[in-house]
């Protein structure tokens, strides 16, 4: 509010300065040098007031910025305070021993679930694997029914096949 009042004051003084300058020119034209000089001194004083007013406005604006920043800092500090209180309450609820107990229970549950998954997935023990291999061998033996081997001794010389006549190949062989 103070800043706004100072700006209004500046506008009023600026308007007065322009009028007084114009009036001083008129007085000089009319030959009233003393009155023009007095009016210019008054104008100079008002210009100094205008400069001081500008400095005050600058100080007020800086103060407003400082206040706004301090308000932001207060909000940050309040947020940190609330967060710290929340963390302390959570730490009271959860102790290190409680967390370790929960982690242990979780690991036990994971191990138990893994055992269930292995049973459902058909994981077999070493005994089961041996029984399966024996059954596979038995099935393989059943499927391989080989013909009986003759008990008579094999002939030592195999009789030759008679030559085939009237075949072009036989004629070529005989001609050579």
UniProtKB/TrEMBL annotation:
Residues 146-176 are annotated as: Disordered. InterPro entries: Snf7_fam. One of its GO terms (cellular component) is ESCRT III complex. Keywords: Coiled coil, Endosome, Membrane, Protein transport, Transport. Pfam families: Snf7. GO terms for biological process: late endosome to vacuole transport via multivesicular body sorting pathway; protein transport; vesicle budding from membrane. Its main location: membrane. It comes from the Eukaryota. Residues 43-70 form a coiled coil. It is found in: Endosome membrane. Belongs to the SNF7 family. This is CHMP6 protein. It comes from Upupa epops.
């Amino acid at each position: 509010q103070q800043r706004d009042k100072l700006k209004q004051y500046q506008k009023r003084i600026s308007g007065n300065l322009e009028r007084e300058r114009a009036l001083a020119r008129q007085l000089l034209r009319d030959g009233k040098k003393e009155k023009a000089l007095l009016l210019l001194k008054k104008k100079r004083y008002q210009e100094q007031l205008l400069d001081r007013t500008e400095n005050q406005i600058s100080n007020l604006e800086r103060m407003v910025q400082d206040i706004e920043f301090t308000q932001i800092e207060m909000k940050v500090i309040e947020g940190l305070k609330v967060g710290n209180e929340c963390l302390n309450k959570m730490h009271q609820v959860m102790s290190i021993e409680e967390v370790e107990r929960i982690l242990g229970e979780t690991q036990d549950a994971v191990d138990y679930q893994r055992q269930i998954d292995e049973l459902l997935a058909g994981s077999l023990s070493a005994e089961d694997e041996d029984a399966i291999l024996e059954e596979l061998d038995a099935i393989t033996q059943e499927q391989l029914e080989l013909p009986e081997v003759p008990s008579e001794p094999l002939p030592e010389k195999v009789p030759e096949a008679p030559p085939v006549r009237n075949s072009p190949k036989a004629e070529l062989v005989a001609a050579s």
